Design the sequence.
């Protein structure tokens, strides 16, 4: 077999791809491969990617052709690309769009480019009950209320449908972004934000309006949402992660659009306002008094004539909201997220019910252009004291991670890191409340958890933003949608097992551009040779795909350490 050592990829017949991390062409290969494959392992020297049907369909929906994908593999592979991989790539990409959902004279139609294909899918039992009948050999009539369910089932069968059935306009609402030139304000849609809005709305009023925009924390996903609202010009429901995030949306809308306070409503556990633009939370949507009760607030999604529904941090979408979304497929839907990774494996439901990935901008590309801060990531591996290690090795496996995550050595290193970063805006982040409480007491720092009242959270965040508070200890409630633009150091003492999305969100807390191009530091403290280290490796996968590397040390990192 001919070898081309100047190339960094090894493509294997099981559709996995090995990428040599120390190769001179590593970055080029990583960026091209990430458009249609997902990283599954990232040890120090050789990263493993997997090409899946869903990764190919998302790429196809974003405009990447099968020929482009094949060219990437051929041009960068060290050995000849296995024929079955190239065949499967063409086959799966070619499936996207062979089935279409169209609307004609009030009827919802499933249209195939081949009569045998339609015969195949309609003969499947899960699909047959969603259809009314067959008009022609290539056209079947769909029950309108089953539009979402049909899309889910077709993805599971391996035949993703392209939804071109259009959307109801919703109740009109004038939404206009303020003109920064006239207002003397330093904002305005950046070029990549304008591209995201335009791509989402491609096809105009008839077809544009369903899909997911992926961009880093700090890159202005809220601005993209407001840009889409400006395009749609209709009543809008925004679903976000918590009350603080809801109020940040309200502040941004008042600051950057011509909407007035009486046009914007907060629908949360503290207020129940339904207005032309309404912002709520996933928690409120999924509240029910008991497990046997219905979800009383889900009707907010279905009983009002919304023209647009925005799912902030769409990777967190809970199951009841998925079910409600399946019923409102005639509404325009915009998902915003830093990562499509879901720890429950339901990425296919995001694809089917919210829509395919429409736009994805690499984190490192925005870093190079100065739109997000340059971040240096450290993994500090610490030994466990003998007594703690003895408890760890004899504990049941399900308890070992917590024992390792709460390694007392982490508390000993924290003051040294904080001394190094005196004067910086520092977040100490963790999973376990007992550990965080002890850290807050030792450091004499305020602690924010899920039990902290909203008013107190907002007060502490405001003090931090104004620089009057330099250190905050926070639980996972601060992972999402919290605007702390001056935070430039994050120290992670424990995480949610191997959560890749959490790692991305936590790094995102410090990625907003800094004055004069200042950088950011992200430290994750790990107990060496334990499950804590294993989970840490998994948490880093998504960020590795985005181009970040972790500098691994066994103690306090050198101050001059830089990204390599």
Sequence:
């Amino acid at each position: 077999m001919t070898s081309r050592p100047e190339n960094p990829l090894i493509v294997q017949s099981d559709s996995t791809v090995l990428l040599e991390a120390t190769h001179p062409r590593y970055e080029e290969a990583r960026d091209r491969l990430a458009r249609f494959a997902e990283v599954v392992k990232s040890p120090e020297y050789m990263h493993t990617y997997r090409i899946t049907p869903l990764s190919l369909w998302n790429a196809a929906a974003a405009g990447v052709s099968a020929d482009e994908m094949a060219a990437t593999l051929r041009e960068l592979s060290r050995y000849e690309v296995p024929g079955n991989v190239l065949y499967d790539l063409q086959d799966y990409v070619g499936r996207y769009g062979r089935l279409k959902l169209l609307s004609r004279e009030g009827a919802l139609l499933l249209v195939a480019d081949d009569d045998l294909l339609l015969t195949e899918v309609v003969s499947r039992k899960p699909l047959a009950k969603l259809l009314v009948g067959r008009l022609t050999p290539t056209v079947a009539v769909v029950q309108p209320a089953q539009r979402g369910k049909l899309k889910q089932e077709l993805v599971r069968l391996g035949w993703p449908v392209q939804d071109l059935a259009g959307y109801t306009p919703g109740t009109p609402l004038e939404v206009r972004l303020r003109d920064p030139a006239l207002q003397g304000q330093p904002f305005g849609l950046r070029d990549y934000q304008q591209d995201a809005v335009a791509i989402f709305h491609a096809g105009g009023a008839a077809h544009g309006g369903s899909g997911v925009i992926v961009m880093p924390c700090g890159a202005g996903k809220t601005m993209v949402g407001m840009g889409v609202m400006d395009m749609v010009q209709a009543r809008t429901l925004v679903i976000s992660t918590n009350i603080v995030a809801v109020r940040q949306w309200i502040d941004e809308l008042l600051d950057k659009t011509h909407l007035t306070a009486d046009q914007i409503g907060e629908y949360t556990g503290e207020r129940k306002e339904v207005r032309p633009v309404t912002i709520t939370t996933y928690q409120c949507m999924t509240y029910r008094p008991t497990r046997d009760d219905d979800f009383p607030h889900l009707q907010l999604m279905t009983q009002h004539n919304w023209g647009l529904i925005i799912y902030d941090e769409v990777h967190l979408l809970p199951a009841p909201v998925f079910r409600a979304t399946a019923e409102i497929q005639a509404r325009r839907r915009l998902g915003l997220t830093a990562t499509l990774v879901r720890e429950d494996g339901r990425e296919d439901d995001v694809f089917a019910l919210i829509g395919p990935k429409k736009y994805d901008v690499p984190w490192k590309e925005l870093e190079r252009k100065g739109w997000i801060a340059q971040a240096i990531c450290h993994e500090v591996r610490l030994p466990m004291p003998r007594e703690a290690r003895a408890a760890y090795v004899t504990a049941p496996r399900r308890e070992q991670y917590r024992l390792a995550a709460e390694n007392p050595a982490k508390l000993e290193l924290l003051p040294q890191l904080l001394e190094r970063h005196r004067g910086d805006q520092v977040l100490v982040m963790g999973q376990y409340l007992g550990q965080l409480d002890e850290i807050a007491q030792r450091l004499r720092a305020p602690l924010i958890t899920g039990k902290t009242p909203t008013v107190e959270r907002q007060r502490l965040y405001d003090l931090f933003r104004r620089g009057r508070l330099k250190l905050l200890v926070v639980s996972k409630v601060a992972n999402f949608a919290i605007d702390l633009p001056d935070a430039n150091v994050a120290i992670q003492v424990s995480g949610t097992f191997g959560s890749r999305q959490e790692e991305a969100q936590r790094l995102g807390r410090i990625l907003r551009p800094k004055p004069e191009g200042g950088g950011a530091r992200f430290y994750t403290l790990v107990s060496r040779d334990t499950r804590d280290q294993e989970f840490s490796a998994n948490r880093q996968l998504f960020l590795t795909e985005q181009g970040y590397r972790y500098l691994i040390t066994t103690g306090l990192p050198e101050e001059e350490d830089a990204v390599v």
Q: What stands out?
A: The longest helix spans residues 243-256. The CA atoms of residues 285 and 300 lie 8 Å apart. The chain has four domains: 9-95, 99-163, 180-361, 369-553.
